[in-house]
């Protein structure tokens, strides 16, 4: 991806920005078109939080425990 490269964090941030922009567009159009934009914006927020949580969980799971020091 040219915008975010291989970074999952940047991809998550880009999705959040697009979701916020989509949610903002919902307030400028008719009431009928507002619902899909609001749903997409809310979905982007929820998926952003889930993606960050999943990335953090995978990173913690991959962290190797420290070796005990011989005494």
**Largest sheet properties:** none
Secondary-structure element series: HH
Shape: elongated
Give the helix level as a range of percent. Answer: over 70%
Average pLDDT: 75
SS class? mainly alpha
Strand content: under 5%
What is the rounded Rg? 19 Å
The tally of strands reads: 0
Notes on the protein architecture:
The chain has one domain (8-62). 72% of the residues lie in helices and 0% in strands. The protein has helices spanning 8-26, 31-62. The radius of gyration is 19 Å and the shape is elongated. 6% of the residues are buried.
Question: What's the short version?
Answer:
The chain has helices at 8-26, 31-62.
Question: Main attributes?
Answer:
71 residues, mainly alpha, 2 helices, 0% strand, elongated
Q: Can you lay out the helices and strands and say which pair or pack?
A:
Layout: H1 8-26, H2 31-62
Helix pairs in contact: 1-2
């Amino acid at each position: 991806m040219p915008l975010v490269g291989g970074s999952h964090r940047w991809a998550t941030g880009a999705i959040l920005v697009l979701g916020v922009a989509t949610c903002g567009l919902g307030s400028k159009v008719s009431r009928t078109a507002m619902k899909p934009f609001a749903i997409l914006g809310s979905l982007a927020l929820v998926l952003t939080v889930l993606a960050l949580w999943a990335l953090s969980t995978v990173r913690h799971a991959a962290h190797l425990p420290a070796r005990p020091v011989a005494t």
